[in-house]
Design a protein that fits this description.
The chain is an alpha+beta fold. The chain is about 35% helix and about 30% strand. The chain has one domain (about 1-40). It has two helices and four strands; from the N terminus they run H-E-E-H-E-E. The longest helix has 12 residues, at about 15-25. This is Defensin.
């Protein structure tokens, strides 16, 4: 959801990746990133 919700990039900074990482941290994971529009959390 977070990857498609705010998928924009400004000066090389992708806000959707930050939101995905924050989502993953909130559920107890070690961060994450977007891959093909899907938020993938690290284990």
């Amino acid at each position: 959801v977070t990857c498609d919700l705010l998928s924009f990039e400004a000066k090389g900074f992708a806000a959707n990746h930050s939101l995905c990482a924050a989502h993953c941290l909130a559920i107890g994971r070690r961060g994450g990133s977007c891959e093909r529009g899907v938020c993938i959390c690290r284990r």
